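Each record in this resource describes a single protein on a pair of labelled lines. With that in mind, the following record should read easily:

===
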Amino acid sequence: MSQNILFIGGAGFIGSNLIKELLRLDSDRWSVHIVEPPFANVSRLDGMNLHIYKGYLSDFDFIKNIIESKCITTIIHLVSTMVPGSSYEDYKLEFESVIFPTVRLMQLCSQKNIKFIYFSSGGTVYGDRNTVVPFLESDAKKPISYYGLSKLTIEESVLFEHRTSGLQYLILRPSNPYGNGQYLYGKQGLIAVSLGRILSNQPITVWGDGASIRDYIYIDDLTHIFRNLLEKDICNETINIGSGIGTSVNEIITILKEIVEEDVMVEYVESRKSDVSNMILDISKLKSILPDLKITEMHEGINRFYLSEKKKIN
C-alpha cells in the first residue's frame, strides 16, 4: 500500500531531489503530491510521476481539501520566502505567509494523526561560535539572521504542538547542501554560485577573508539519508544532517581550481553580519540511526557537480 506524501514547497533544489530519490527506487510505494504557488517554476519536476497543486500555504481550505481528498499520511515542509541575508521586512512577511499558516497546518496534522516533517536549517539556527567544535542538536540555538530566527520559530512551534497535542514530527537540520539541480546564478549557495561565476568567466565574490568554515553535504547524500529516515519511520526527533566536517571558503576555492584546471578569479569584499564564522554539525545521532552512513568527499562531490553542469552547457 502506498504512502500519500504532501510536499509543501517541493519544486526547489532540495525538494525536487528528495522527490526524485523517493520515486527512483519504488515509485509505487509513494504517492507524491506537491503544493506550489501559482507563480512557481516547477520545471525541475518534469517527467516525474506526481501531482502538483497550485495555491498558497496561507489558503487553509485549499490545503485541507488536498489533505482530506488525497488521504495524506505525511507532510514534508520545505517552504520559505527567505534567505540568510533577508531583512526584518522579509521576516514580517514570512510570519504572515509561512509561519502562522504552518502552525495552523500542524494543528490539523495533530487532529488527523499526520506525520509532520520539517526541514529546518542546521547552518543558521545555532548561530555563531569562535571555535570549530561541532554543534550538537541539544546545543543552544542563537541565530544571527532573520532567516535562522524564522526556522527556529517554526521548530519551537513543532515542539509545542507535540507537547500539547501529540503531533508526530521529525525536524531535520541539513547543513549546506550542494549538487545537481542547484541554481548557479543566484545569491545563495557558495559552491553553486562559484561554479556559475567560473562557467561565465566572472570572478568569485568572497565575503570576508575566506577563513569562515562551513559543513557541506552533497545533495545525493542528503536525499539518501532522508529516504532512509522515512523508511525507518523515525519520529519525534531532531536530527543534524551534514558531513560532520568543516571546510573553509578558501579551501572550497582551492578545490574548484584543481577541478576546473584553469585560473579562477577571486575578489574579497567586506563580510556580512548575517554570516557565521564557524558552523560544523555533529552527526553522531544520525550515525547511530544509520550506522552504514556514507558521506561523499568534498572533492568528489564538487567534481560531480561541475561535470554535470559543464555537460549541460556542451
